[in-house]
Structure formats: C-alpha cells, structure tokens
Amino acid sequence: YNEYKSYLRPMEVIIGTYEGPVISYGVDLRDDICLEPQFIEKSHSGCVKSIACSSRYLASGSSDESIRLLDLHKRVELGALMQHSGTITSLAFHGSHLLSGSEDGLICIFSCGSWDCLKTLKGHTSAVLQLAVHPSGVLALSVSKDKTLKTWSLITGKPVHTVNLQQLPDSVLWNTDGSMYGILADKTISVYLPSSGCPIRNYTCQRRIVTAKFLSPKLLCYGGEDTFIILVNVQTSESQSIAGHQARVKALDFVKSDVPNHFILASVASDGDVKIWAVSQSSHQLIGATQIMNYRPVCMCLFTGEKKSLKQPFETFANQVKSKAKVKRRILFADLHAIVGGKTIRRKLKHRKRSRMIPLNLEPLDKK
C-alpha cells in the first residue's frame, strides 16, 4: 500500500441507515489514514434502502417512497423525486441519467439536472428488487419478486428478453466491462454470459450472501452473514478470504487505483463497523476503519468526484445562508422542490436552523 498510496485521490464513504439519516465520512489516503466525519443528512422519514452517486450528485431512496437529491459539489439539497408509489429499492447513475426501481414494480429514468422523468419502464408484476445498467448504457437488467430477470433496451424503453428464475433473486450486477453478469439469490451467486442462459460459475456460502461487486471483468467480491469478504477470480477460481468484521457484511463498494489490478475496497457491517482495504487479486491490507454509533447501516457508496478539499469541513445549509445577509431569511424558509411527473412544484416549508445538513458530532478516527 505504501508504494502506491500517492496515486490515490480523496474520497467519501457515504452510508444510508435504517433510522433514515445519510452519513458521510471523508477519506484522504494520501496522508495519514483516517476517516473523518463530514456530514449527516436527515431528510428521509423512513429507512434508506438504496444509495448511489455520480461525479456530482447523490441520490438516496427510502421506504418513505421518495428519492432525495444532493449536489455534492455545492453541498446543498436539491429536493425530492416523488415519481414512485412504493419503497425505493434500487438506484443507479449512468452518465447524465438516474435510474430507480421500486416496490411499485416500475423503473424510472430521470435526466440529471432537470430531473424530469424521461421514461417509465413497465413489465414487472411485483416489486423490483435490483437493477443494473450495462457499462455501455444501452441495456439494463432488473430482477423482481415475480421471479423474473428482465433485459431492457434503454434506447426504446422496452423489455427485450425475460427469463423465469427458479429461486427468488436478491440482486443482479454486471461486471466492469459488461461481458458477464451475476445473480445473487440467498446463499448463491451465479455468473452468466449474456449469450448463455446457463451459469458458467456458481459460488455458494453456508449462510446468506448480502452484497456483491465485480472489481474487474474477472474479479468478484462478495460478503454476507458469515462476516467474511471473499475475492474470487471467476476465470481461474483463485480466491482469498478477508476476515475483519464481527457482524454481517451489509454493503461493499470500491474505487480503482492508478496502479494496475489494485483497488480500494470499502465495507460496512451491520454493527456499524466501517473498514477500508487495499486489495489485489492475491493480497489485501486493512488501511482504515471507524465505527458508526447510534445508527444501523443498510447501504453504501463511494464518492470520488471533484469537490472541496476533504480537510475543509463542509458548510451546512444554515451556515451558507448566514454568510449572506441578503438571503438571511432563507434560514427560516427554504424551497422544497418536489418533482412529480416531470413537473416542479415549489413549496415553502418552515424548518429549524441547521436542519438541512447537520454536522456529524463524532470524533475522528484515532491515528495509530
């Protein structure tokens, strides 16, 4: 790790919780390893079920049936998307678009910036559990409680293929070049080629697998209730096990370093334990950790977009307003943009000072 840490960029670990808040930790791997609390955002009134970020925006979906949007460059809340009538189960950014899946069985495609709903994909007869966009942006996969896997054309907005699954799926994911995909169901991950209906690999654990990610076209990473993180090469079947958590692994995400075949992997467990790993196909090293207090993690994503230095604390919504006397009244009244059916409705709601982004009152990770 010390040999290539100068190649790494600052990033943020952003976590959605069962209680509703979205919590962010800043990570600067170029200096001393640390995870510093950045902000906690409390817009949702229900459990945060899914979270995703692009190079600028953060989207979080909740059981309150809303998608909350934040501009991570300006550090302000943009509003809420109210297109769905069920819990938001999956979110994915691709280019200038945001895709969302919900328990209402619909998949919506939004345009980033204007946040208009460009298309609603209909086809599932039950809740959408997970969706995954092909790296080309031409296709998307979705799995549902109706035990089907659907392939969608994002050009026409229509399903082009449907597969009936024998087991209720939990998730679906593409590898990084789109040459294969995986379906997670209970204790098994099955890896498929797009041209074949039969799995080329099956990986089974003794206990339920909760989360999985492809780090490269051939390197698969997954974790779950057995508390281990497994890295396996789907071509050679070489694998390694990472032991570091004491509770079930709830979410994984990664960024690729400039060093070939090396990755920075973030993992979060149900007990609030957050760990940062430097991994390759044959080795791993723990390089940072912290503990979330009073909240139970559900989902996670990593943000690496261009922004302010992580060493500068985020300005809260209230602090930004206080610095400008001419708009001081915005402390008491803020515009909430509820985007419904492509139309923007502006309402003024009273709220308490510092109620948009409240600084996270936690101590930074001890440097050892």
Strand content: over 45%
Shape by Cα distribution: globular
Cα Rg: 20 Å
Number of strands: 31
Termini separation comes to 16 Å
Number of continuous helical runs: 1
Category from helices, strands and their pairing: mainly beta
Counting copies of identical and different chains, the oligomeric state is: single chain
Mean pLDDT: 82
Describe the sheet with the most strands: 6 strands, mixed
Residue runs with pLDDT of under 50 for 5 or more positions: 306-368
Can you characterise this structure?
Helices cover 2% and strands 51% of the residues. The protein has 368 residues and is mainly β. The strands form 7 sheets. The chain has a 6-stranded mixed sheet, with no helix packed on it. The radius of gyration is 20 Å and the shape is globular. The two termini are 16 Å apart.
Keywords:
about 50% strand; 5-stranded antiparallel β-sheet; about 0% helix; about 375 residues; mainly beta; disordered C terminus
